[in-house]
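Loading example: each entry is read as two labelled lines plus one structure line.
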Amino acid sequence: MARYLIRRTLFGVLVLIVVSLFTFIVFVKLPTQDPAIRLAGKHPSAQQLALIRHNLGLDRPIYVQYWNFARGLIPWPGFFLDPKVYYSWYNQVPVRTEIASRFPVTLVLTLGATVLWLLMGIPVGIMSATKRGSAMDRTAMVFALVGVSAPIFWLSLVLLYVFHFQLHIAPSTGIPEGMSLWQAVWSGIFVLPWISLAITNAAFYSRMVRGNLLETMGEDYIRTARAKGISERRVIYKHGLRGALTPVVTMLGLDVAFLLGGAIITESVFQLPGIGQYALNSLYTDDFPAVMGVTVVGAFFIVVANLAVDVVYAFLDPRVRYT
Amino acid sequence: MAEPLLDVRNLRVWFPTDDGVVKAVDGVSFQVFPGQTLGIVGESGSGKSVSMLTTMGLVSHDQAIIEGEVIFQGQDLLKLPSDEMRTIRGNKMGMVFQDPMSSLHPFYKVGDQIVEAIRSHQDMSKRDAMDLAVDMLRRVGIPRPEERANQYPHEYSGGMRQRAMIAMALVLNPDLLIADEPTTALDVTVQAQILDLIDRLREEFNAAVVIITHDLGVVAEHCDEIQVMYAGRIVETGDARDIYYHAQHPYAWGLLQSIARMDQEMDRLRPIRGLPPSLIHVPSGCAFHPRCPYVMDVCKREVPELIPSNGHHASACHLSLAEKERIFREEVAQQA
């Protein structure tokens, strides 16, 4: 197992390198405004521009520039997103600091939505599978289809329109100046964002749970369980669900990791100052170090989650053993 | 004669489907006595498994139209509410299935699965139940049972898994053990071991056993009574001697003749001509008539009754007893 973990970790670092390289190349090729021009004041002289560019390291050869970024990939304190390189061109703040201060918002958004979609999706999936073909099942699956198909920006805007503008139940977008994250949560600012993120995923998970459970309930060991004379409830939950949920756990790990890297659309529509909004702003302002930083952080979460779900899977399914 | 442990009377199990009604079991009656081994023989689709699954209550009334009576220890199981049926299933009646790899839950340890069977019927602490489970594993011949109880099904060999399934079915000392193709998924050498095990346990536990199989070789040595099924009906019953040395039904003759023999010169195997019938469109009269080499007009019109010829040897065929004996003597006995 130890050898497996080491191999996966090294592979994970390789993934980060590839991701960062790719991002770097894309950015180099994109026609962007020279950051020196933006940072300099009005009517900069050529000398001033040259000086700024030198400070930003833009006069070094490309591979040297990349090498500086690459060193910031090592997930070790002191190296990771090294502020000498990952320094925002836009607002003169180390990228790392900015991400760290925005992370709690994204975390709250992700966790709340996750709990909500699990509470909605899994019971619906179980109910649909056990009462397959019934009116409840068909209705639930139609809703699920709608939930999966509806684009998240549309869903967010519709929720905002109905619950804030028409019904005046939900608060407005954004977190007011000076309000702490806790206060924001208590005042319900996150409720609509949670719901809009949760609906799409709940729909997807309910369909997945339904499909997996239907398949599991057709297995031979379910027949054996019934032949033992145990209660139907136990057959479904202890025997059927146990097999059906392992793929769900895998998906969950990846979905959560993906959202931790920033729910860009939801954060934008609801004006939440999380990593997603930061990513979007950085792209608009061609703030390359910030873009790299956010990309690396997002990739890092996904790499870690990939490894975590594989390890968890080995615990859940005793037939799987890693060497 | 003692009271039968299991008395199935005129059982019909029909499954409605989009293509029509599948008459899986169509008027089956038989009895099993305490301490007896009954072998139910037939090809796939003959209704042998469905009749026993219905007896266990594993075919529900929403899935199938079920008629007739299944009287077990004086109670008609078909009329029991499902809660009461659950107290009998796994407790007084145990069932072992064909493929032990897929029949045991892959995520739970074998010992825990047996403990679950115990504790759903008896009030026992986990420790006591585990002791009982380990003891049962020992009795079915699994070495080092304390260690093995802590392992998962995929860590067992095929024969061991089947032994574990048998242990699980017998742990609560049921009066009836039903084994549905218990050896089909196993190697030949292991098959013999498992069948011997079932024999031994039947004596130790004083249980009655029903073995469902398509393999005549399996029933020959291990069954007191044999019942041959075709298209959802019983076509012949008798003890092993009756069936092997005095078979009376053309289908049974076909089965005996189709056995591959090492002690004879054979150029080709002798299968039964034709294909098994559709259970939706069962042939009129005797269901075997399209494939029968001795078919007569009456066979296409009238369903033959299961008529005893002597004692309990009975067959469902319109041929006269004299003709049956002649045909067996002249044609089947030479080749079988």
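Chain B touches chain A at residues 56, 58, 86-91, 94-95, 97, 99, 102-108, 116-117, 120-121, 152, 154, 165, 168-169 (CB under 8 Å).
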